[in-house]
Amino acid sequence: MKNEFNNKTKEYTIGRPSYPIEVLSTIRELGINEHSSIADIGAGTGLLTNLLGELGCEVLAIEPNEHMLEECEKYCVNNRNIKFINSTAEETALKEDSVDIITIAQAFHWFDKPLCKKEFQRILKEDGHVIILFNEMQLDSQLAKEYRSILHEYKVKTNAGISDFDPDKEKFDFFGQDYTKRYYDNWHTLTEEGFVGGALSLSYTPSKLDSSYEEFTAALHHLFSKYQQNEKITFHYKTEVCVCRFTKR
């Protein structure tokens, strides 16, 4: 995961959707207060981290990519209760039994599961929770369908970000028991720069180093022009929020 988003940090920042405010209500229901501690693992550029800062508790942003972590610090500059740690999900450098909740946004598929399981169980307090979030674009518009088609046409590799796996089975195997799910609508409005940036931010799409980069970006600009209204487009996402716990050790 550490190197998958090299050369894509700026694009990630301007193009990726954030998370709906309702996520905070789900977390508060678990008893989180100003004395609690949350580890946001695979924090990226801070899209979830910054939202978590509104809870008023300690938030630990764990991110292995230095460039992403720098962007995370900039994005979360107004939240003084966030600490930034350049570490991996497999070796967080956090103390044993030190966090009440682990959050993972758009990153669980990147982790080394056996190593992470040991590490998460080590740092979680007894009866702690793991919350896994994922923004899934809804193909309920012609724009979204054509956008998805372009992404697959120009993909330069197949990796964890686009691999074929069963996420429900993966989480069940990881935690050893079932978990609860909630879904929230999440609307993401973009300018042309953000629209192109979002596509370029994906781990499997061309970067400036790839020969298909110019053709890919030209196709994106054409698609934006086709569907833009007042120089913006909007995508519809469903945000899946999974509240998980490990079986008793």
Task: Produce the secondary structure layout.
Blueprint: H1 9-15, H2 22-28, E1 37-41, H3 47-52, E2 58-62, H4 66-75, E3 82-85, E4 99-105, H5 113-123, E5 124-137, H6 142-153, H7 167-175, E6 180-190, H8 192-200, H9 213-227, E7 233-244
Parallel strand pairs: 1-2, 1-4, 2-3, 4-5
Antiparallel strand pairs: 5-7, 6-7
Notes on the protein architecture:
By secondary structure, the protein is an alpha/beta fold. The protein has a domain at 9-138 and 159-188 and 238-244: Vaccinia Virus protein VP39 (Rossmann fold). 35% of the residues lie in helices and 23% in strands. It has 9 helices and 7 strands. The protein has helices at residues 9-15, 22-28, 47-52, 66-75, 113-123, 142-153, 167-175, 192-200, 213-227; strands at residues 37-41, 58-62, 82-85, 99-105, 124-137, 180-190, 233-244. A 7-stranded mixed sheet has the order 3-2-1-4-5-7-6. Helix 4 links the parallel strand 2 and strand 3 (82-85). Helix 1 crosses helix 8, helix 6 packs antiparallel against helix 9 (213-227) and helix 8 (192-200) packs across helix 9 (213-227). The model has no long low-confidence stretch (mean pLDDT 93).
